[in-house]
Design goal:
By secondary structure, the chain is an alpha/beta fold. It is built from 3 helices and 6 strands; from the N terminus they run H-E-E-H-E-E-E-E-H. It starts with a helix and ends with a helix.
Length: about 170
Amino acid sequence: MLKKIIKYKKFVILVFITITLAGCAYSFTGSSVPNHLKTIAIPFAIDRSGSGEPNMADNFTSTLIEKFITDNSLAITDKAKSDALLDCTINSISESPNSIKSGESVSSIRLTINTRVVYKDFVMKKTIFEKNFSDYADYSNTGDVYTNRVNAITEAIDKLSDEILLAVVSDW
């Protein structure tokens, strides 16, 4: 009789553990892309920064599209065929001293790019988010300053693109 009770208790515990574990499923994808969205259009960014920086909007748009292609959460398509739209505007690019060396001369400059992004769901006819994104890169004020600055712009654009992609495809 005691063996039957022990066997029954083991069975009940096993069933309880199975039910508990089945109810605690967890997804590590972090995906927040609605299931009905399969494609996205990313038109050329508008540059309202007034910086006169040649090709900045084109480079920003190309980098952002490359990030989405690599991520593969949403397929890139043109606006007429897309389920969603990512509208980006570069609002400003600013530079400020980042580090000062002896004699009060600037040795490093922080370049910051500020953008406004609107993410629209065409299927449900609603705006998913409107957000400002800002990121920076530092560059040396010595040597080939022009090349250093161009590299800083590229780095800031890369960081911004990562942030925007993460905001679109993840709820972490």
